Amino acid sequence: MLVRASIGTLAKLGLSSVRMSDEPTTAYFLQYSDNGCLGKCGFCNQSRMTVGRQDWLGKIVWPLVESSLILRSWRDVFKRICFQTVLKKGFITEAKSFIQGISGVSRLPISLAITPVPKGVLEEFKELGVSELGVGLDTATRELFAKWGKPYTWEIYWSFIENAVEVFGRGRVYVHLIVGLGERLREAVDTLIKIYSAGARAALFNYFDTGSMKSIDKKYYRVVQLAVELLENGENPLDYIDVDAGVFKRQPPVDVFKALYTRGCPGCNRPFYTDLPSSIYNYPSRRTLEKHRQIVIEELRSIGVMV
């Protein structure tokens, strides 16, 4: 079975030689399809509609590798394993096969990122050892969901999120939200509140346009990151954020530095997945954040947050 693996994952397994300022703490694998994913998501290089290189996801190279080589080379040098599916014929069976294989050589917790499937299939994945589930809702509104070509429907995704929480438990389902796809701040915050109200959590990504090689306004992203940290601490972000002005009207009672780390499953740091070392949206480590501490302080002050 051919799969894609992030270049950092391969490097930690001794299968690639690449210099890394921050090493991945999760082993990242992506299902492979000869013809690309059947989904038509306009922001994803894996889509069959893409004109970009399919060996890239975000700003990271994902070479093709035989899964048997991964298993032979396996070392528990990570904190977690993440397997991301694509839409293609037989993708559920293939995902089960990969998870069974990796479970035979590793005791690490496993995350699975998947599009809507029946509740019974989720239960089967849980029995195979999947402990956390990733759901690529990606967009903050029903209108943007349609505009960016997401498969299925907005309603089907929300029903799937509810089913996933029932199967895996509250706090073990991570809804992926890409910030900067055209939503207003109020819409992003409202969707985040809905995610947490459903018993799920947020995994944040900043939109990066591979055509222009530009990302979104960083101040805007910092507000959204802090909104998630407030929700993680049981607070309502709307009590602290002026969503019209895009700044904080009250100092948030949270660790403001913690809010800026990569937001995903436990042990997920996605180093430079959608960032450049010179302009970081999601900090992969404390060491890297400290190197940019003064820049971070200035960014936070610009949105009304004191450090």
Automatic annotation (TrEMBL):
Sorted alphabetically, which SMART domains does this protein's record hold?
Elp3
- Ranges for domain Radical SAM core: 22-242
Give the species.
Answer: Desulfurococcus mucosus (strain ATCC 35584 / DSM 2162 / JCM 9187 / O7/1)
Protein's name according to its UniProt entry: Radical SAM domain protein
Q: Name one GO molecular function term.
A: catalytic activity
Stored InterPro entries: Aldolase_TIM, Elp3/MiaA/NifB-like_rSAM, rSAM, rSAM_sf
Q: Which superkingdom does the taxonomy of this entry point to? A: Archaea
Q: Which UniProt keywords apply?
A: Iron, Iron-sulfur, Metal-binding, S-adenosyl-L-methionine
